[in-house]
Every structure is written in C-alpha cells, then in structure tokens.
C-alpha cells in the first residue's frame, strides 16, 4: 500500500532523517533544473506567471549556489503538510512513513520520505523544453507503482493523474461539508487540512487494514457509508458539528 500526496508550493528547510537517499532519478531532476537555470529572468517570470517580488525570489532560488538539502516531509510546508506531525513520530511510525508515504512531484517524479530534496517551484501543467511532464515521468511512475496492490489517494487531480496507467486498487478519499441547505460541498482549505489529518492518522496508527481508515474522526469528519462506493470513500462534516 502507498499513500499519495501532492507537493506544496510553500516550502521550508529542515531535516528529519540522519541518512537521506537520492531521488529515484536524480539525473532527470537535474535536467529539469538545468532547463530552468537556462531561462532568463523575463522568461522565468512569464513561465510561472509571477509578479514581483515572487518572480525575483523564484529566479534567485533557481540560481542559488548555497543549496540546503532537506528531506521530503521537512521541506513541504503547505496546508496539507502542516497537519502531518512528523516531529512527533517514533521510530516505528517513521519506518511506516518511509514504507508507505509518497509525494508526487513535477521535478522529482516520485518521492519517499527519506529522500534528499531541494526547494523548487514547478507544476505538472508546465512544459520544459517542449516536454510534457506527465510523459516525462510516466515510465518511472509506472515502474514504481507496478507491484503496488493499493494506493490511498490523498493527492489533487493534477498529481494523481500521474498514475493514469495504474492497474491496482486506487482508493480515492473525499472530504465534503454539509451546508445549511443540506447540500454537500468541498471547502478547499478545510479539505486540504483533512487530507493532512488523514495522512497523519494513518501514519500515527500505522494503518495496514484499509477498512481501519473508516475510523477516522478528525476535525468533525466521519465516514459516510451511504455516499461511499468501493473505490470512492466520502467523509462528511455535518452542519451541526
């Protein structure tokens, strides 16, 4: 079983693991980095659709010679990752994190928790040197997930699309909120927080049985059996909560 997450644009610097492994294809990542470095400032600004001062910050990041090497769950620090309490994990939980946790990345392809990474900015929707990044990483993704029986999908559609050839069980987790009208709605920020909480719940409890996910009760969400299907499980936050 693998649990997949999307990366976040918000990133920091830190280290959890004393020993860090190289990404699965450092050579491919380096090629993409070099393509970005070859772009002049105006092109970087246009490529990412950025305004000042963010454009300058990204350009400087790409060309920095003082590069800090983090590991995956100490680098990403967006909404989802703020709910993942990696600093509190014991050795058993960290082993589970390495074995089961995966972050999909436009720059690195597939990342496990103890892999060495550097701050970056890149989306799957961007093309570099005419390359479609889905195609660029497809064989690596296919190889990595080829023998994985189950994937718990906590990633966005942009990144879960990387698994378009996956033939195992893809369990998609959905978080919705009941409105005063009784309708159900995805509230984006809180749904992202819930993905992080679900990931943290699975690691903290070292979940091995898929059905144990149904006991998740964080932030007012609970499993909705009537809404759920075999590979699409819904967790609802009711209006009164």
Question: What would you say this structure looks like, in words?
Answer:
This protein has one domain (2-237). It is globular. The chain has helices spanning 26-37, 41-48, 54-63, 72-75, 79-82, 91-100, 133-145, 157-160, 188-204, and strands at 2-5, 70-71, 101-105, 109-112, 116-117, 127-128, 131-132, 150-153, 169-178, 184-185, 221-223, 232-237. The longest helix has 17 residues, at 188-204. Strands 1, 3, 4, 8, 9, 10, 11 and 12 form an 8-stranded mixed beta sheet that branches. The model has no long low-confidence stretch (mean pLDDT 96). The protein has 9 helices and 12 strands. It is of the alpha/beta class and 241 residues long.
Question: Top keywords for this entry?
Answer:
241 residues; alpha/beta; 19% strand
How many strand segments?
A: 12
Q: What's the pLDDT, averaged over the residues?
A: 96
Question: What share of residues is helical?
Answer: 25-40%
How many helices? The count is 9
- Name the helix and strand elements from N-terminus to C-terminus, one letter apiece: EHHHEHHHEEEEEHEHEEHEE
What would the principal axes of the Cα set say about the shape? Answer: globular
Q: Terminal Cα separation, in Å?
A: 32 Å
Blueprint (SSEs and pairs):
Layout: E1 2-5, H1 26-37, H2 41-48, H3 54-63, E2 70-71, H4 72-75, H5 79-82, H6 91-100, E3 101-105, E4 109-112, E5 116-117, E6 127-128, E7 131-132, H7 133-145, E8 150-153, H8 157-160, E9 169-178, E10 184-185, H9 188-204, E11 221-223, E12 232-237
Parallel strand pairs: 1-3, 1-8, 8-9, 9-12
Antiparallel strand pairs: 2-5, 3-4, 6-7, 9-10, 11-12
